[in-house]
Structure formats: C-alpha cells, structure tokens
Design goal:
The chain is α/β, with parallel strands linked by helices. Helix content is 31%, strand content 22%. The longest helix has 22 residues.
C-alpha cells in the first residue's frame, strides 16, 4: 500500500490582534489571570462580516496548493474540519469547492472539534493508501469570535479561543523514507456534555428533562432556539475546564506513545511534537511526562489562542516556515478535545 505525504502546507491568520488587555473592556479578567491558566497572550479575530470559516480555509488552501504545485483542477477530494461552519448546513467543504471553482469532487466535513484535523488526516491517509485519490485537500478552519460570550459570565471559555485556518495537500509519498507512518484515533462519549455547545440543537435538553416537566411535547419541540436561551446565555459553548484538563493530560501522552510504540520508536526519536494548542499548561505537562526537550515541542498558543481544528496545521505550517521542520524529520501531531475525541499522526517529513 502507498504511503501518503504532505506535499504542501499553508496557513491563514486574520489581521486583527486581540491582546488580553483588550478583553478587559468586556469582562472582569486580567492579563495575569489568563496567562497563568492558559499561557495565552493574544489571539486573532476574523473580520465580523468580510471573513468566514470558509474564506479563511480558502486562503490557507491556496497557499498549500501553490506550495504543492497543484491547481484547483487537480484536487480530487476535499476534507474540511471545523466546529464553526458558515452554516448549520451545508458544510464548509462544498462552499470551499465552489469558491475555488473546483470540479464536482467529493467534499467531506469532519466535526471532531479540536481533534478534527487529526481525524481528517487519518481519512486522507487511507484514501491515498488505497489509491482512491491522488491530491487531497485537508483544511482546518475556525471562526470562534462570532459565537463567544464576551462577558464575565463567559470568560472561562471566551479568553481561550481565536480564529484562523490551516491546510495541507496530501499526495502519495515519493519513496518509503517519507510520509505518514500511522494514525491513531480514539473517543469516549461518557462525558460529552462537559465540553459542548448545546444550542441550537435537536436534543430538546433530553438529559435535563426535569427542567421541562411542565412543557408538553409540542412546546419542547419548539425549543430548538428561543429568546430564553439567549437571555440565559445558553447559546454559548460550555466547558468544565478542570475536568477537561484532567482527561487531556492522561490521553494526550497515551496516544503519542501509542504512535511511537506502533513504529518501534521512543520519545527521544522525535524531532518535533506539535500538540493541539488547547492550553499551554497541558502541552507543558505532556512535554514533562514524555521527557521531551524544549526543542522537541512546538507551541504557538501564546499568540493565536486555541483555534481548535485549525491549531495543528497552523502550528505545523509556522514551524516549517521557521525551519524547525526539515526533510527526514520525525514529526508527531496530536490532539484532544470535545467528545471526548483524541488522536495522533506520526510522519516522516
């Protein structure tokens, strides 16, 4: 079976920089409070109306395609990972296909949140290995800023997230000395609601039915979206930060070690680990747990915040642009997020 490789990589970050101090206008917080808990100093926000998840994805994709030396006409499959699509439906994959004037190729949307890009890479890898496609465009893009609660009530979540996009072109490897060695995916839905955006949704609050005992079925059915949800702040993401942290620091190192052990390698063999940029404290814990040197781990959450599905390709692209990723390097990409879902990709650049 063929291996797959990253033939081109690109990223896009909005121009607007929002520093921690800027958030003081909206909520009771401080630069020290945010940095101590997350390591974040600033993040990027997309233009409110001129930029969307899709337009940012298109910008990153064009750079990746240019670097891979392929045109829109040569792309034969799209995989688009995001938790913040332009529309509830259809997904961003078809919007990108339209915007880039591609052929009537398949477009798959991946909704695995922070793990979305890793899951998307795994899918692309399988299509290349089986010879189904030759040029797959994998995109991770997010526009969080339009859907955050900019009040003290929502600060635990809102200070963390930023906007941006990353993309890669996946092709068959040129030889057996390069490409994706293996991918590893996992999930555990037992605690799905501790990191989630409940509304709008079709659940009708089924796990909190006691709160709706006085409503008949017709009334509950009308609660897909309501003024009460807005008034109570129920249309924003919810996160139990400490619970997520405890799970992440266990599963992150596990899935990285799983990839290394699968290929008869150890953490010492890694040239670079690029973790999903969820929280600098999580990345630092994982680094310590695996005994990695500072030179073996790349973090940029300090400047971009958590861009969920976009964070891994943005960080990988930036590391490559800075010369920290070189031909022949052993690279591990890893992510953990809502669901819970987590995964890793081990590759030779």
């Amino acid at each position: 079976m063929l291996r797959s490789r990253m033939a081109g990589i690109g990223k896009y970050l909005p121009e607007q920089i929002v520093r921690n101090q800027d958030l003081l206008r909206y909520m009771d917080t401080s630069d020290e409070w945010i940095q101590e808990r997350t390591g974040i100093q600033e993040r990027r926000y997309a233009h409110r109306t001129a930029e969307t998840t899709t337009t940012m994805g298109v910008a990153a994709a064009q750079i990746a395609m240019d670097r891979a030396g392929v045109t829109a006409a040569e792309i034969d499959f799209i995989i688009f990972a995001t938790l913040s699509p332009d529309y509830y439906f259809p997904g961003c994959g078809v919007l990108l296909q339209r915007a880039m004037k591609m052929k009537e190729i398949g477009a798959l949307d991946v909704r695995n949140q922070c793990s979305g890009f890793v899951y998307a890479l795994s899918i692309a890898d399988q299509y290349i290995r089986t010879g189904t496609y030759k040029n797959i465009l994998v995109v991770g893009a997010e526009k969080h800023s339009f859907g955050l609660d900019f009040s003290t009530r929502g600060r635990n979540v809102s200070v963390i997230f930023g906007d941006g996009a990353g993309a890669v072109v996946i092709q068959p490897a040129r030889n057996d000395q390069e490409g994706i060695l293996s991918t590893h995916l996992h999930s555990d839905g037992e605690s799905a609601e501790i990191l989630a955006m409940y509304n709008p949704g079709t659940h009708a609050n089924h796990w909190k039915q006691e709160e709706f005992a006085s409503f008949d079925d017709a009334a509950i059915g009308q609660m897909f979206f309501s003024h009460a949800m807005i008034d109570k702040g129920q249309v924003y993401p919810y996160m139990d930060g400490p619970a997520v942290f405890k799970k992440a620091i266990v599963k992150f190192p596990e899935v990285i070690l799983e990839a290394l052990e699968k290929n008869g390698l150890t953490p010492a063999d890694l040239n670079l680990l690029i973790p999903h940029q969820a929280n600098l404290r999580i990345a630092q814990f994982v680094q310590q747990k695996l005994g990695l040197q500072d030179s073996q781990v790349y973090n940029n959450i300090q400047y971009y915040g958590n861009t969920t599905a976009a964070s891994v390709p943005i960080a990988l692209c930036e590391a490559w642009e800075k010369g920290k990723v070189k031909e022949g390097d052993l690279i591990c990409l890893a992510a953990f997020g809502s669901g819970f879902t987590w995964g890793s990709v081990l590759l030779k650049w």
